[in-house]
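Task card 7
Instruction: Convert sequence to structure tokens.
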Amino acid sequence: MRKLLAVLFCALLILPAAAEELPARLDLSAAEELSTPAEEVEEIFTPGKGHCGKPGCFWETPMDYTNEAAVWAMLTAPMIVVDGNFRAQANIYAEPSEDSKPVGEVTRSTQGVHVLETLDNGWTKIETYSSSFAGSRIKAYNQLVTGYIQTEQLVEVPARTEYGLVVDKLTQRLYIYHEGKLFDTLVVSTGLGTKADPENETRSGEYLLYSATGGFWSNEFLCNFGIRYNDGDLLHEVPHIPREEGAYYGRTEPKLGQRASHGCIRVQRKRTENGVNMRWIWDNLRDKMKTRMVIWEDWEGRTIPLPGEDTALYYNPKSGRDYHDSPTCYGVNNRYEPMTAFSYGELETEGFAKLKACQYCIPPRRAAEIEKINAAHAPAESAEE
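Output:
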């Protein structure tokens, strides 16, 4: 089950003893200089909790997909991994000794770790999201853990600089970056971890695409275009059931945009306006292994901002079933016929309230849906008020 922890900067300053249990924030020294009252300081969420201080560090980069410069610097920075077979895990120990208790696991070669301190005794203190899978002796499913690993096992690997991927578990979106710019957005389903099956949670962190596996079966479902990035976790097309009359996606495609998988990342098959889908990723990245992909955790307190009321949307007045983010879209029968524009502020008014979000061009969610997601991630104290 995902770990939901968040606290305001001011709480970190007042209660330093609790900081070890919190997700990372930017350098707190800057917050001390602000003249803005503490309750008005905007909370900045980052993937880790320890200070990094290196340019483009994943663990300190704010989780904001619109900040192209910061995201691209993070996607193209070198990454520290544990050397070895990419289908194996290494233990993370509570103390700098193999005789101490293991507190987590890290997948070798493909999963990044955050170096916190290099000791003189041959050990290094790190943090990372534990890649414990079903059957693991260490039941630390997706927990952000801090512990020790032998320094000689750590190696730095360069990153490719053509493409980079960001998966956000809060928005359930995959953001594709190309040569420094946000290129396109796809809808995904990450893992649905439950009390009964916590191992189904998609593990957050930084990874390298490592093996173009191709299609594989999951029970009666066929998962096409699989690209392995974290041992048993793959990026792949939304599963379907093969039938003589054609592939059936009815049991999985409607769940895109929400948690639904057993840990893998399911990606939409329908093409965006740019012609992008999971097959496009396969065609363009299968020969570019070691491309960076990062997965952002939906920390408690993180929210999805509401679009501005004047945000432009579009619909086809002849069909009127969907609303669109683009005036041309594969979701419209005749995509060469201009659609009618209207504003996000009009979406709940008569004539637009029954429109559904297009599954191709990924328009903004309705305000009620965004508010429901944000309420589910509200800090516990706020939720009780």
